[in-house]
Amino acid sequence: MTKILAITNQKGGVGKTTTSINLAASLAASGRRILLVDLDPQGNATMGSGVNKNNLTQTIYHVLLGSQTISAVLNTSEFGKYDLIPANRNLAGAEVEMIDLDKREARLKIALDEVEGVYDYILIDCPPALNILTLNGLCAAHAVIIPMQCEYYALEGLSDLVNTIKKVRGKFNHTLRIEGLLRTMFDPRNILAQQVSDQLKQHFGDKVYKTIIPRNIRLAEAPGFGKPVMVHDKMSKGAQAYLAFAKEILEATK
Ligand code: ATP
Ligand code: MG
Predict the structure, then answer these.
(1) Ligand 1 close to Cβ of residue 13 (< 6 A)
(2) What are 14-45's pLDDT values in tens digits?
């Protein structure tokens, strides 16, 4: 069975896309068949996968609006060895255009039925908002991975997200779960980060992944080359952390 994971946090710049790309590539490196869905009009997961968002005529936008199928818009990340459903700024218009559509929260879920069983994992890179795009991600997913930075306002934002997930569970996707929380851009010398991390473990217990993603310059550089970090610099701390994270995911979801 295909396991569908939404990578989401309405807070911007917390490492959703970095996690999506590098988890996709790390899982692919261990022989899993992976599809990454870019659900963000910024198209960062697309560019970071080495696909130029500006040259695309067919994207996830066309899938959500019903004019294309998943297989018709499929791209591949040459360096990452995973398949990609790309996005670009067209997608920003989808919210308004989807208003009159039937079952507008379930468009992605229904479209992904076409590739059920083709992949071991489908990862969905959500935009930094609790909008109809994110709602489509949450309705399509079996579970949610929440990347977060351990800083002052992180816990507050987290309770909004947890409430949203509860509402989605009640109304649309009864089995949606939080798969886990991933601490990103972590600096162990930062005392506040340590404190927030401790609070996180108190609140969420073993939902907090053991793997911690450190702040690492190689992770920030890699998307500029359209490569996952393990191709850009395999021995870097960032690459090693995401490879360890993929192992933890494989262990938890087997
Ligand atoms: P958005 O909400 O805009 O979609 P995001 O949550 O997807 O953002 P990213 O784009 O993954 O976040 O990361 C934000 C910025 O931080 C990017 O420039 C990225 O390269 C950088 N970054 C992410 N993780 C790390 C890390 N562990 N170490 C250093 N830089 C990082
Ligand atoms: Mg992003």
Answers:
(1) yes
(2) 999 999 999 999 999 999 999 999 999 999 99
pTM over 0.90: yes
Domain ranges across the chain: 3-252
State residue 153's pLDDT score: 85
Per-residue pLDDT tens for 117-166?
A: 999 999 999 999 999 999 999 999 999 999 999 998 888 889 999 999 99
Distances (CA, A) of 205 to 23, 131, 188: 22, 28, 19
Residue 147, token pair as written in the block: 């990347």
Regarding the domain delimited by 3-252, which CATH topology (the fold level of the hierarchy) does it fall under? Answer: Rossmann fold (3.40.50)
| Token couple for 221 | 């550089």
Ligand 1 neighbour 17 (Cβ under 6 A)? yes
Q: For 202-247, how does the pLDDT look when each residue is reduced to its tens digit (9 = 90+)?
A: 999 999 999 999 999 999 999 999 999 999 999 999 999 999 999 9
Q: Is 224 in the pocket of ligand 1 (CB under 6 A)?
A: no
Testing ligand 1's pocket by substitution, the residue of 17, 144, 187 carrying the most ligand atoms inside 8 A of its CB is 17
